[in-house]
Amino acid sequence: MAKKLKVGVIGAGMIANHAHIPGYLSIPDECEIKWLCDIKPDVLKEVGTKYSISNLTADYRDLLNDPEIDAVSVATPNLEHMQMTVDALKAGKHVLCEKPLSMNADQSKAMCRAAKDSGKILQVGLQYRFCGPGLFMKEYIDKGHMGDVYYGRAQALRRRGVPGWGVFTNKEKQGGGPLIDIGVHILDFTLFLMGYPKPVSASGKTWDILGKNPNLTNFMGDFDRDKFTVEDMAVGFIRFEDGQVVTLESSFMANIEQEFFKTTLMGTKSGAEVCPGFSNDPIVIFSERDKQVFNERPVNIPDIKSSHVKEVQEFVATIQEGGKSKVPGEHGLILNAIFDALYKSTETGVEEKIDLSY
Ligand SMILES: NC(=O)c1ccc[n+]([C@@H]2O[C@H](COP(=O)([O-])OP(=O)(O)OC[C@H]3O[C@@H](n4cnc5c(N)ncnc54)[C@H](O)[C@@H]3O)[C@@H](O)[C@H]2O)c1
Known about the structure:
The protein is α/β, with parallel strands linked by helices. The chain has helices at 14-25, 41-50, 61-64, 78-90, 105-118, 132-142, 171-174, 178-193, 307-321, 329-348; strands spanning 5-10, 31-37, 55-57, 71-74, 94-98, 122-125, 149-157, 199-207, 233-240, 245-251, 260-267, 271-274, 283-289, 292-296, 352-353.
């Protein structure tokens, strides 16, 4: 039987409470949470008490100095991801770092280098790969039923959905707006299904008009319009090494009727629309047989109650089994490098090259 792991969670906010802590607690025979860290004393005390975590600290280095700790979750704002992850890897800990991997490609490269040098697992918190529709579609595509998928459309569009908590509207701490916050999920999901092709260039455009308008409503809490320094909407056109293209649309605010969290794939044998989030009808496959065309809806999609919990379980299993990360740092780097190119292209007005070397 594999060794029971001791883990620490850095950041005790929303995602720690919804993903990391429940994920570790769901497999008590495999791991135990020994440390919890947060710089807000009240949050630390409340969450530590709720989950009976005995070691509480405001300094994440306390976890890293504990030789018993095997792995840590980094569940802090994006600005903190790089240093904490690099320090943890250097201290010999495996890391599950929340998405986006970091603020930009340079930071993500440093994290990938640290993972390579340490030989430890670096997993990125991109849980939609582990949802039922994701597992179903991955197997369907890997079996060749879609042929070559040459085009993907990734959409994470909210009408009035600026997160009213945390630092999601602060470019300095977050790195960007919907692109880096929710675009990261749907782009990762799309690239995952397409076999993670290597991007070579991207062009794009961002706007920040609606987010700064104090007269508009918001459905996800309140936020200070004067301190809104991220984009409210972004679009991108991304080219890949073998000729595939992905378009990306992502918004916190946009004047649209229907909100989307959806991937559309077009392949040489069939196409598909896949909604990895909360949907009763998450997959439609478009096919043709004997000159008859079909819209098919699979019914035996795996029933994964929480992809958040599943990603943590997969992280622990990967450590125990000694395998490769199921969501490697390199994928987080690819996403950051694409976002860098899209933000730069907004300024230059032309397509930007993508360099993934580290
Ligand atoms: N995977 C997902 O679906 C998903 C969803 C939401 C957020 N996230 C990611 O999770 C991360 C955190 O987001 P959140 O919504 O939980 O934010 P949050 O503000 O609710 O929680 C972050 C916590 O980190 C703490 N913190 C900040 N700096 C710290 C430091 N130096 N040391 C220790 N603690 C520190 C804060 O006090 C806060 O309690 C972000 O990277 C975000 O992108 C992922």
